[in-house]
Amino acid sequence: MDLLRRLTLSLTFVVSAAPLAAQVTSETLQTSAGAVQVSAVVTGLDTPWAFGFLPDGKIVLTEREGDVLLITPGQSAVTLRNPPQVTVDGQGGLLDVLVPRDFAQSRTLFFTHAKRQGRGSGTAVTKATLDADGTSLSNHQTIFEIEPGSSGGRHFGSRIVEAPDGTLFVTVGDRGDRPSAQDRSLHNGSVLRITKDGDVPADNPFAQTPGVQPEIWSYGHRNPQGAAIDARGQLWVNEHGARGGDEVNRIAKGANFGWPVISYGKHYSGRSIGEGTTKDGMQQPEKFWDPSIAPSGMAFYDNGSIGSWNGDMFVGSLKFDYIARLEGSPLREAEQIQGESTQRVRDIRQGPSGDLWFLSIGNGALYRMSIPGS
User: Which of 155, 187, 221, 240 is catalytic?
Assistant: First the structure.
């Protein structure tokens, strides 16, 4: 990032530092819960990918091209020095960020990103320390990278979430190589579980299985780009299908979610995928979309100011420019929250005060959604 843009981001929160698809700083949206106010917290972002909240209310935010920003709402944004070293390769680059529950003590952040592996690249996890003055990252350590062998710039995943027991779940796409999602000698197309040092937990389902990557928790995934843990501690993942067949999955230990043997979508050519929509030993999605919405960030709404939304799931759509609210059993899309601010929603999270926050790639902005007057 050049010096001019650094200075502009540091000083400006409602005026864009670069030409954007739309200049949306504030709008009122009508929802099932009534009117909500959507306000830009920072604009001028370059392909934003993920964000997380620090205990002091500051926000750490990643841009796919490799920058990490530290944002103080209403005051300033700082581009951190010494970000993780990443490979920018198509859909890959600097991706998710996790602020762990012990951040106040450890000051450790976790990042997922694309990493050069020989002639190709693969999904990796790096941890780093946010220095006390909040201007730089240090003590970088890549604690995990997928088995080498992937090429091309597609389907890196990749979300990282902290389980109730402190282990980490990491999602990895099939890297555009469909059969590899069923090949457990590779990490492609899987949800992984590792410790904060990158070790394999002893109770992983394949920790002692010869020929299987021991980090694998579930497999048969296409390109999981959203992940969240609900109030009961259950991990959920959403993933991109091909032409149709985007899914929301309730993740189970050791489970096979079927890609590319079963799918509710078709190839982009219109040809059928695999063997149909069901097969013994393969899990069914809790929800699928046809046509595809290109789901991305995911969050659960818990004890927020809108009581009717408590327990509901929220998912960003990259394709149709809205936020989906899902509820019930069976899980269904109950509402589409849409406005000028919701262009290509990449990430969505619940903030410390209970409001929903989301990243719009289309607007290059981070927004806060709240009840007017709150």
Answer: 155
SS3 5: helix
Say if residues 63 and 42 touch (Cβ distance below 8 Å).
no
Residue 195 token pair: 């410790």
Supply 178's token pair. Answer: 């469909």
Report pLDDT digits (tens) over 357-368. 999 999 999 999
Residue that the structure tokens 């990643």 belong to: 62
Residue 14 pLDDT greater than 70, yes or no: no
Distance of CA 249 to the CA centre of its chain: 15
- Give the predicted TM-score (pTM) of the model: 0.93
Question: Are 315 and 295 spatial neighbours (Cβ–Cβ below 8 Å)?
Answer: yes
* 109-124 tens-digit pLDDT: 999 999 999 999 999 9
Is position 267 annotated as part of the catalytic site? no
Q: Is 247 in contact with 239 (CB distance < 8 Å)?
A: yes
d(CA 210, CA 253): 18
